[in-house]
Amino acid sequence: MLAQNEKNQKKKSGWFKKILIGYLGLMVVGLVIMRVADKTTPEERQKKEAQRSEEQSKDNKRILYAAAAISGLQSGLREPDSLQVDSIMVDENAMVACIEYRAKNGFGGVNKDSITIKDGKPFKDAGTWNKNCTKSLYDVTDGAKKLIRLAS
Questions:
Q1: Which of 46, 70, 100, 147 has the fewest other C-beta atoms within 10 Å?
Q2: Domain membership flag for residue 73
Q3: How buried is 151 (Cβ within 10 angstroms: 0-12 exposed, 13-18 middle, 19+ buried)?
Q4: Distance CA 73, CA 102 (A)
Q5: Number of separate domains in the chain
Q6: What is the pLDDT of residues 111-125, one digit of tens each?
Q7: Alpha helices of the chain — where are they, by DSSP H?
């Protein structure tokens, strides 16, 4: 009986090894095919890298604008340390920032509010928000929060 169990276990482990080796073989073949199929020239790769670098530069500009907008907002609050940013969206050219936030008011309660920063100037009216913040924007909330944490 013990010998029969050992044979069954060897059979099972043999199948597992075959399946594993087959899977790994397919992965290697797939990687080779992908490498051979990549027909991009060095110039094309360089162009793609330049585009990625330019996009990263634009993202950094948006994050810097957002962090500056948050810093400006924070300095105008009664209790600057109470600021909690829910979201911050920036347009493509980093000229408009739309911030949804919470902060303590003069009575100690927390208010939820929004503000539009356009060309460095704050606007709290709904018309400016609707005109600038209801279109497609870039969400830079996480990046701006990280930058502010690093700066403080």
A1: 46
A2: yes
A3: exposed
A4: 11
A5: 1
A6: 999 999 999 999 999
A7: 2-37, 42-75, 126-133, 141-151
For residue 52, tell me if it sits in a domain.
yes
Position 28 in a domain: no
How many percent of the chain have pLDDT more than 90? 51
pLDDT at 11: 54
Q: Do residues 122 and 115 lie in contact, with contact meaning Cβ atoms separated by under 8 Å?
A: yes
| Residue 128, domain extent | 43-151
Q: Is 0.70 surpassed by the pTM of this model?
A: no
Residue 126 inside a domain? The answer is yes
Cα 73–Cα 86–Cα 138 angle in degrees, nearest 5: 85
